[in-house]
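Page 47, continued from p. 46.
Same chain as before, 106 aa.
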Amino acid sequence: MFSLRLVVVILALVCAGLWYGWRSAPTDLTVHVPPDLRSGSTRKWWDVPPENVYAFALYIFGQLNRWPSDGEQDYRRAIYGLQSYLTPGCKAFLDGDYEYRKAAGE
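Result:
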């Protein structure tokens, strides 16, 4: 009788551990799939391929340097609008670039 109770307690602990693992698992994962799937892909889910980094950087660069009407206002607005995608060093560089261009009358 004691061994049966012991097995029930052990199974309850195992179930509690499995429930905790299920609840603490991430709900969203970003998986980067290569565009050409003919050769297949084996990649860890946290590995960001260089081509995605380059595409993201090109998109941000294009948005920063798009000045449809007035470069003085549009460049400042673009830096402010994209500041959450920039590192503090990059933002400081762009702020300095803005001041330099403004002083040069560009």
